[in-house]
Amino acid sequence: xxxxxxxxxxxxxxxxxxxxxxxxxxxxxxxxxxxxxxxxxxxxxxxxxxxxxxxxxxxxxxxxxxxxxxxxxxxxxxxxxxxxxxxxxxxxxxxxxxxxxxxxxxxxxxxxxxxxxxxxxxxxxxxxxxxxxxxxxxxxxxxxxxxxxxxxxxxxxxxxxxxxxxxxxxxxxxxxxxxxxxxxxxxxxxxxxxxxxxxxxxxxxxxxxxxxxxxxxxxxxxxxxxxxxxxxxxxxxxxxxxxxxxxxxxxxxxxxxxxxxxxxxxxxxxxxxxxxxxxxxxxxxxxxxxxxxxxxxxxxxxxxxxxxxxxxxxxxxxxxxxxxxxxxx
Length: 329
Prior knowledge:
The protein is of the alpha/beta class. The chain folds into two domains: about 10-135 and about 255-300, D-Maltodextrin-Binding Protein, domain 2 (3-Layer(aba) Sandwich); about 135-255 and about 315-325, 3-Layer(aba) Sandwich (D-Maltodextrin-Binding Protein, domain 2), CATH 3.40.190.10. Helices cover about 45% and strands about 15% of the residues. The protein contains twelve helices and nine strands. Strands 1, 2, 3, 4, 5, 6, 7, 8 and 9 form a nine-stranded mixed sheet that branches. Helix 2 (about 55-65) links the parallel strand 1 and strand 2. The longest helix has about 35 residues, at about 10-40. The N and C termini lie close together (about 10 Å). Residues about 15-20 and about 25-40 have low confidence and may be disordered.
């Protein structure tokens, strides 16, 4: 009988419940705020936001101070990062509530564009209603006092070695940047090699977490020796005093931008377009870099994993099904 990742059934159940409750909450907010705001309050903008609330609110407060425009932001949770928001946008495609979508990774934004959610809107010439800005990266995280330089994995494949059995932590790869990363690896490695790696990873009994910040905290507590997470979560943990260090494996790891999209048509002087331009401005990007929400204003140099987005989007539903099958064993 194959081993199962520790806590996988409980975590997946919690995530499923969180997704269902989140969708109900989003629909409720649509009724009590979104529709009212859309039809009766032209001074309010509806923003669907996957960026962490603590960082986003600082930018939105400054936007309101400068313009006098109100932004009603609907946030998602770390447990179902981006997926719940994307599903709502897909459901509302024929009668959109949101004016602007602020994403914290690009897979789901590309999916929405591919499905026509952003219509013929353009932010940049020739674009599909969305644009990327800033960058953070996927990282391995370790406690340097527990994992010396000579012991650290040199590739993601090494995470399937017996050395890391029961000592690895990652977020459930159905949501957020972990999901995007797994989809990109499948397109790069090919179906069979990727499936063997996922199965071996599951056999190594990883801790499956609700989100990337949980990965870093488990490593910081010494319960896991290595984790797969994002640079912003490492930054925040270090700022709070945790003794953790991020490792770069460029060819295996991914650069993750923020994205912004126009959900409804907006001319150059439209409030929604003003919000988009503000979020992409150097001032906001630099604010997010200072706070650790972004790692840099520009894509870092290096041989990072470059996703084949055509293949990723083509195989999206199949890949999700394979991930569920492997990590629910």
